[in-house]
Design brief:
Rossmann fold, four-stranded antiparallel β-sheet, alpha/beta, nine-stranded mixed β-sheet
Length: 281
Protein backbone atom coordinates (compact mmCIF):
# COMPACT_ATOMS: atom_id res chain seq x y z
CA UNK A 1 0.00 0.00 0.00
CA UNK A 2 1.33 3.42 -0.98
CA UNK A 3 2.26 5.68 1.94
CA UNK A 4 0.50 9.01 2.16
CA UNK A 5 2.75 12.01 1.53
CA UNK A 6 3.51 13.79 4.81
CA UNK A 7 3.46 17.59 4.52
CA UNK A 8 3.84 19.09 7.98
CA UNK A 9 6.69 21.56 7.48
CA UNK A 10 6.62 25.32 6.96
CA UNK A 11 4.23 26.82 4.42
CA UNK A 12 5.73 27.56 0.99
CA UNK A 13 3.62 29.51 -1.49
CA UNK A 14 4.50 28.92 -5.15
CA UNK A 15 3.18 31.46 -7.63
CA UNK A 16 2.28 29.61 -10.81
CA UNK A 17 1.53 25.93 -11.30
CA UNK A 18 2.95 25.37 -14.78
CA UNK A 19 5.77 23.04 -15.79
CA UNK A 20 8.71 24.60 -13.93
CA UNK A 21 6.60 25.65 -10.95
CA UNK A 22 5.31 22.09 -10.67
CA UNK A 23 8.86 20.76 -10.50
CA UNK A 24 9.51 23.12 -7.59
CA UNK A 25 6.24 22.23 -5.87
CA UNK A 26 6.86 18.51 -6.34
CA UNK A 27 10.35 18.61 -4.78
CA UNK A 28 9.23 20.72 -1.81
CA UNK A 29 6.12 18.62 -1.17
CA UNK A 30 8.19 15.41 -1.29
CA UNK A 31 10.53 16.89 1.32
CA UNK A 32 7.72 17.72 3.74
CA UNK A 33 6.91 21.38 3.13
CA UNK A 34 3.28 22.48 3.14
CA UNK A 35 3.17 23.66 -0.45
CA UNK A 36 0.32 25.80 -1.78
CA UNK A 37 0.24 26.94 -5.42
CA UNK A 38 -1.64 29.82 -7.03
CA UNK A 39 -2.75 30.14 -10.64
CA UNK A 40 -4.84 32.22 -13.02
CA UNK A 41 -8.37 31.11 -13.90
CA UNK A 42 -7.38 29.83 -17.37
CA UNK A 43 -3.70 28.82 -17.32
CA UNK A 44 -1.87 28.14 -20.61
CA UNK A 45 0.16 24.96 -20.16
CA UNK A 46 1.73 23.14 -23.09
CA UNK A 47 2.97 20.25 -20.93
CA UNK A 48 -0.26 20.06 -18.93
CA UNK A 49 0.10 16.34 -18.02
CA UNK A 50 2.99 17.27 -15.69
CA UNK A 51 1.51 20.52 -14.34
CA UNK A 52 -0.31 20.82 -11.03
CA UNK A 53 -2.14 23.74 -12.66
CA UNK A 54 -4.21 21.17 -14.58
CA UNK A 55 -6.14 20.79 -11.33
CA UNK A 56 -7.69 24.22 -12.07
CA UNK A 57 -9.81 22.69 -14.83
CA UNK A 58 -9.88 19.05 -13.68
CA UNK A 59 -10.41 19.59 -9.96
CA UNK A 60 -7.65 17.12 -9.08
CA UNK A 61 -4.42 16.19 -10.83
CA UNK A 62 -1.47 13.95 -10.07
CA UNK A 63 2.15 14.42 -11.16
CA UNK A 64 4.57 11.56 -10.47
CA UNK A 65 2.59 10.28 -7.51
CA UNK A 66 1.90 13.67 -5.91
CA UNK A 67 -1.74 14.78 -5.87
CA UNK A 68 -2.97 18.37 -6.25
CA UNK A 69 -6.50 19.60 -5.63
CA UNK A 70 -8.18 22.83 -6.64
CA UNK A 71 -9.60 24.59 -3.58
CA UNK A 72 -12.04 27.47 -3.50
CA UNK A 73 -11.07 28.67 -0.03
CA UNK A 74 -7.64 28.95 1.61
CA UNK A 75 -9.20 27.60 4.81
CA UNK A 76 -9.30 24.18 3.14
CA UNK A 77 -5.51 24.06 2.79
CA UNK A 78 -4.87 22.42 6.14
CA UNK A 79 -7.20 19.54 5.28
CA UNK A 80 -5.44 19.11 1.92
CA UNK A 81 -2.01 19.00 3.56
CA UNK A 82 -3.22 16.44 6.09
CA UNK A 83 -4.41 14.34 3.15
CA UNK A 84 -0.95 14.64 1.55
CA UNK A 85 -2.15 16.88 -1.29
CA UNK A 86 -0.99 20.20 -2.73
CA UNK A 87 -3.71 22.87 -2.66
CA UNK A 88 -4.10 24.91 -5.86
CA UNK A 89 -5.89 28.24 -5.52
CA UNK A 90 -7.08 30.50 -8.34
CA UNK A 91 -5.59 33.64 -6.83
CA UNK A 92 -3.21 35.49 -9.18
CA UNK A 93 -3.37 38.62 -6.99
CA UNK A 94 -2.35 36.69 -3.84
CA UNK A 95 -5.34 37.68 -1.78
CA UNK A 96 -4.57 34.63 0.36
CA UNK A 97 -1.05 35.83 1.23
CA UNK A 98 -1.66 37.41 4.64
CA UNK A 99 -3.99 34.57 5.62
CA UNK A 100 -1.56 31.78 4.75
CA UNK A 101 1.49 33.70 6.03
CA UNK A 102 4.06 31.58 4.14
CA UNK A 103 7.60 31.29 5.42
CA UNK A 104 8.82 31.08 1.80
CA UNK A 105 7.41 32.46 -1.44
CA UNK A 106 8.60 31.27 -4.85
CA UNK A 107 7.62 33.20 -7.97
CA UNK A 108 7.69 30.47 -10.63
CA UNK A 109 5.30 32.09 -13.10
CA UNK A 110 8.13 32.25 -15.67
CA UNK A 111 6.71 35.43 -17.20
CA UNK A 112 10.19 36.88 -17.86
CA UNK A 113 9.10 39.84 -15.73
CA UNK A 114 7.98 40.45 -12.17
CA UNK A 115 4.19 40.41 -11.85
CA UNK A 116 4.09 41.85 -8.35
CA UNK A 117 6.32 39.75 -6.11
CA UNK A 118 8.03 41.66 -3.27
CA UNK A 119 10.67 40.65 -0.76
CA UNK A 120 8.31 41.60 2.07
CA UNK A 121 5.85 38.84 1.14
CA UNK A 122 7.72 36.12 3.08
CA UNK A 123 10.81 35.50 5.21
CA UNK A 124 12.55 34.19 2.08
CA UNK A 125 11.55 34.97 -1.48
CA UNK A 126 12.76 33.36 -4.70
CA UNK A 127 12.30 34.44 -8.31
CA UNK A 128 12.80 31.95 -11.14
CA UNK A 129 14.54 33.29 -14.21
CA UNK A 130 14.83 36.76 -15.74
CA UNK A 131 12.65 39.60 -14.49
CA UNK A 132 13.89 39.63 -10.89
CA UNK A 133 16.82 41.23 -9.13
CA UNK A 134 18.19 39.49 -6.06
CA UNK A 135 18.46 41.90 -3.16
CA UNK A 136 15.81 44.18 -4.66
CA UNK A 137 12.47 42.49 -5.36
CA UNK A 138 13.40 38.96 -4.18
CA UNK A 139 16.05 37.54 -1.87
CA UNK A 140 17.32 34.95 -4.34
CA UNK A 141 17.09 34.56 -8.11
CA UNK A 142 17.34 31.05 -9.57
CA UNK A 143 18.98 30.70 -12.98
CA UNK A 144 16.62 28.96 -15.42
CA UNK A 145 18.67 29.08 -18.62
CA UNK A 146 19.75 25.60 -19.69
CA UNK A 147 23.47 25.00 -19.54
CA UNK A 148 26.31 25.21 -17.05
CA UNK A 149 24.56 27.60 -14.64
CA UNK A 150 21.09 26.03 -14.60
CA UNK A 151 19.79 26.08 -11.02
CA UNK A 152 22.52 28.42 -9.74
CA UNK A 153 21.40 30.59 -6.81
CA UNK A 154 22.02 34.29 -7.39
CA UNK A 155 22.13 36.45 -4.26
CA UNK A 156 22.99 39.74 -5.96
CA UNK A 157 21.83 40.73 -9.41
CA UNK A 158 19.73 39.02 -12.07
CA UNK A 159 19.54 35.81 -14.07
CA UNK A 160 20.76 35.65 -17.65
CA UNK A 161 18.48 37.68 -19.93
CA UNK A 162 15.83 35.94 -21.98
CA UNK A 163 17.35 35.02 -25.33
CA UNK A 164 14.05 34.03 -26.92
CA UNK A 165 15.80 30.87 -28.16
CA UNK A 166 14.78 27.52 -26.59
CA UNK A 167 17.56 25.47 -25.06
CA UNK A 168 18.98 22.63 -27.13
CA UNK A 169 17.61 19.12 -26.75
CA UNK A 170 19.46 16.46 -28.76
CA UNK A 171 21.09 19.27 -30.74
CA UNK A 172 17.79 20.90 -31.76
CA UNK A 173 16.69 24.28 -30.39
CA UNK A 174 14.14 26.55 -32.08
CA UNK A 175 12.64 23.85 -34.30
CA UNK A 176 11.40 21.80 -31.36
CA UNK A 177 9.08 24.53 -29.99
CA UNK A 178 5.96 25.73 -31.80
CA UNK A 179 4.32 29.14 -31.45
CA UNK A 180 0.98 30.52 -32.59
CA UNK A 181 1.40 32.50 -35.82
CA UNK A 182 -1.64 34.66 -34.97
CA UNK A 183 -4.35 35.11 -32.36
CA UNK A 184 -7.31 32.76 -32.49
CA UNK A 185 -8.62 29.42 -31.27
CA UNK A 186 -6.15 26.53 -31.23
CA UNK A 187 -7.53 23.15 -32.22
CA UNK A 188 -5.35 20.09 -31.75
CA UNK A 189 -5.06 17.35 -34.37
CA UNK A 190 -2.54 15.16 -32.57
CA UNK A 191 -2.09 13.99 -28.98
CA UNK A 192 0.76 14.21 -26.50
CA UNK A 193 2.85 11.04 -26.60
CA UNK A 194 2.48 10.46 -30.34
CA UNK A 195 5.49 10.19 -32.62
CA UNK A 196 5.51 12.95 -35.25
CA UNK A 197 7.62 13.78 -38.29
CA UNK A 198 8.73 17.07 -39.76
CA UNK A 199 5.84 18.51 -41.77
CA UNK A 200 3.07 16.71 -39.85
CA UNK A 201 0.05 18.82 -38.97
CA UNK A 202 -0.30 19.10 -35.20
CA UNK A 203 -3.24 21.47 -35.14
CA UNK A 204 -4.59 24.73 -36.46
CA UNK A 205 -5.31 28.30 -35.40
CA UNK A 206 -8.74 29.66 -36.36
CA UNK A 207 -9.04 33.44 -36.19
CA UNK A 208 -12.64 33.44 -37.41
CA UNK A 209 -11.59 34.22 -40.97
CA UNK A 210 -9.39 31.27 -41.91
CA UNK A 211 -7.55 28.35 -40.39
CA UNK A 212 -3.75 28.16 -40.37
CA UNK A 213 -2.03 24.81 -39.96
CA UNK A 214 0.60 24.24 -37.28
CA UNK A 215 3.28 21.94 -38.68
CA UNK A 216 5.97 20.07 -36.81
CA UNK A 217 9.43 21.39 -37.62
CA UNK A 218 11.32 18.27 -36.57
CA UNK A 219 10.96 14.54 -35.90
CA UNK A 220 10.30 13.31 -32.38
CA UNK A 221 7.63 12.67 -29.78
CA UNK A 222 4.95 15.27 -29.14
CA UNK A 223 5.86 16.11 -25.56
CA UNK A 224 3.51 19.06 -25.12
CA UNK A 225 0.46 20.53 -26.85
CA UNK A 226 -2.19 22.96 -25.71
CA UNK A 227 -5.61 21.46 -25.23
CA UNK A 228 -7.99 21.81 -28.14
CA UNK A 229 -10.28 24.87 -28.32
CA UNK A 230 -7.82 26.99 -26.31
CA UNK A 231 -7.86 30.73 -27.12
CA UNK A 232 -4.35 32.06 -27.76
CA UNK A 233 -2.69 35.36 -28.58
CA UNK A 234 -0.08 35.74 -31.30
CA UNK A 235 3.33 34.14 -30.66
CA UNK A 236 2.22 32.01 -27.71
CA UNK A 237 3.92 28.66 -27.15
CA UNK A 238 1.49 25.95 -28.25
CA UNK A 239 3.59 22.81 -28.73
CA UNK A 240 6.82 21.02 -27.88
CA UNK A 241 8.39 18.19 -29.90
CA UNK A 242 11.13 16.22 -28.16
CA UNK A 243 13.65 14.98 -30.77
CA UNK A 244 14.85 12.24 -28.41
CA UNK A 245 11.60 10.42 -29.16
CA UNK A 246 11.14 8.88 -25.69
CA UNK A 247 7.40 8.71 -24.93
CA UNK A 248 7.95 8.26 -21.18
CA UNK A 249 9.43 11.77 -21.05
CA UNK A 250 5.95 13.13 -21.85
CA UNK A 251 4.55 12.02 -18.50
CA UNK A 252 7.40 12.90 -16.15
CA UNK A 253 9.06 16.01 -14.75
CA UNK A 254 11.98 17.25 -16.84
CA UNK A 255 15.55 17.44 -15.62
CA UNK A 256 15.24 21.24 -15.78
CA UNK A 257 12.15 21.46 -13.56
CA UNK A 258 13.65 18.94 -11.13
CA UNK A 259 16.90 20.93 -10.98
CA UNK A 260 15.01 24.14 -10.23
CA UNK A 261 13.13 22.40 -7.44
CA UNK A 262 16.39 21.18 -5.97
CA UNK A 263 17.87 24.66 -6.24
CA UNK A 264 14.98 26.23 -4.32
CA UNK A 265 15.25 23.52 -1.66
CA UNK A 266 18.97 24.28 -1.31
CA UNK A 267 18.22 27.98 -1.04
CA UNK A 268 15.73 27.39 1.76
CA UNK A 269 18.04 25.10 3.70
CA UNK A 270 21.12 27.30 3.44
CA UNK A 271 19.21 30.48 4.36
CA UNK A 272 19.09 29.60 8.07
CA UNK A 273 15.35 30.18 8.38
CA UNK A 274 15.01 26.50 9.33
CA UNK A 275 17.70 26.83 11.99
CA UNK A 276 16.65 23.83 14.09
CA UNK A 277 17.28 21.64 11.02
CA UNK A 278 20.22 23.42 9.41
CA UNK A 279 22.37 24.86 12.15
CA UNK A 280 22.77 21.96 14.54
CA UNK A 281 26.29 21.17 15.71
Amino acid sequence: MKNKLVMNGPVVLVRGAGEQASGVGWVLAKTGFRVVMTEVAVPLMVRWPVCFGTAVSEGRWQVEGVQASRLEDHKECEAAWRAGEIPVLVDPQLECLSLLNPLVLVDAIMAKRNLGTKRSMARRTFGLGPGFTAGVDVDVVVETNRGHNLGRLIHQGAAQPNTGIPGEVAGISSKRVLYSPKAGIFRAKRAIGEQVSEGDSLGEIDDGVRQEEILSLCNGVLRGLLRTDTPVAEHVKIGDVDPRGQEEYCWTITEKARALGGAVLQGILESGILSPLCNHE
